Automatic annotation (TrEMBL):
Lineage: Bacteria, Pseudomonadati, Bacteroidota, Cytophagia, Cytophagales
Pfam families listed in its UniProt record: Iron_permease (PF04120)
GO BP terms: transmembrane transport
Keyword Membrane: yes
Protein name in the entry: Low affinity iron permease family protein
Organism encoding this protein: Adhaeribacter arboris
Length: 159
């Protein structure tokens, strides 16, 4: 097996990853919601002081637009990293399981049409599994088809 190259990410990449992770973590806390709710409450209370002026309305619109715009990128960074980590873990599971099809490794690189074809095969597997007497049976698609053929040929009948 080839050694993985020790490619170091740039300082900016490391900073951005760390920053995005921290902001995503903090923004997911209940206290962050309460702080945001507090800002909206203060803004609403100050409405009469500013006679509900256009400037008063512009402040909340501008702030929320900027925060939302920036949060999209920060949260997407965290989602991309999490998604990639999960995909790699799933690839490892598929590679490690004896009966698993290695064709599923890097399945995320397939086109939508290829995924639809593969999904139809797994729908067939689901149909076959529904005919099983035990819900504890698990097979790859190839195993399931072979098992189904054997059962049909033997004409299994419950005893």
């Amino acid at each position: 097996m080839e050694k993985m190259k020790d490619k170091q990410p740039s300082r900016f990449t490391l900073f951005f990853e760390n920053f995005a992770n921290q902001i995503t973590w903090v923004s997911g806390k209940p206290v962050s919601f309460l702080v945001a709710l507090g800002f909206v409450f203060v803004w609403a209370i100050t409405g009469p002081l500013f006679k509900f002026s256009d400037t008063w309305q512009l402040v909340i619109n501008t702030v929320t637009s900027i925060v939302t715009f920036l949060m999209v990128f920060l949260i997407q960074q965290s989602q991309n990293k999490d998604s990639q980590a999960i995909q790699l873990k799933l690839n490892e599971v598929v590679a490690a399981l004896k009966g698993a099809s290695n064709r599923l490794i890097n399945i995320e690189d397939l086109s939508d049409e290829e995924l639809k074809v593969l999904k139809s095969y797994y729908n067939q597997l689901s149909d076959i599994a529904e005919k099983e007497e035990s819900i504890m049976e698990a097979h790859s698609l190839e195993d399931a088809r072979e098992n189904q053929k054997v059962k049909e040929q033997a004409d299994f009948k419950p005893q």
